[in-house]
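Moderator note: this is an archived Q&A kept for reference. The question asked for a predicted structure of one protein chain; the sequence and the answer are reproduced below.
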Amino acid sequence: MDFTGKTIVLAGAGGIGAATAELLASLGARMILLDVVEEKMKEVLSTLEGEGHTCYVCDFSVVESIEPLLAQIIKEQGPVDGYVHTTGIGAVRPLKMSKYDFMLRVMNINFFSFVEVVRCLTKKGSFNAGMNIVGISAVGAFIGNSTKTAYCASKSAMNSAVRCLAKELAPKGIRLNTVAPGATDTPMAKEATDYRDGTDEQKINAMRQYLGTCQPEDIADAVAFLLSDLSRMVTGTCMPVDGGKLTS
């Protein structure tokens, strides 16, 4: 895989986002990072191979702020070749605490912002020929878990949207796919696990992922494949990287 001369926008500088940025940069890509925490992005930038990488502060919970920011990025950095949406929150709450404002915040960050970025980056003049888009979904889109209604719903919404968007954007030569990680060794996953640690459900879920816990690099490998020409006939689909969890 060779991304030399390609410009990739990546949202989220956390565990999976950082690993993906490092891998893509090592394969020649110029990375543009988006995150709400500037210090986190600068830390990731310091680890990247190559030159020309940059970052912009973006609060994905404020969806209406995304369009003007992306317009600025295209003006300053030029059209892009790919987009990776790794940003998200894995907030867990029981139903009695899942009020509308909480549900809306999760959906804004995990789903609505994804669609908004895709809408903006697929406008004429904003992308180069052969652009590819990858969203980070989750096995939670397929498996129900107590206290994770908002999170699982947002990931299911992403998968459904990508199936529709893949058809709509194919005439422009744009492919879209998602990756569904199983339990992965990231700070966000640890927070969710700590909330439910020791429960029977948590123990069963751990046993189902019989190849063990994924590492961020495992997810980054799948993202790079879907962004590359090696997957040129793959679009509108979700690729599980879950240690076998969905098969057990």
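Archived answer notes: Residues 7-241 form a domain with the Rossmann fold fold (CATH 3.40.50.720).
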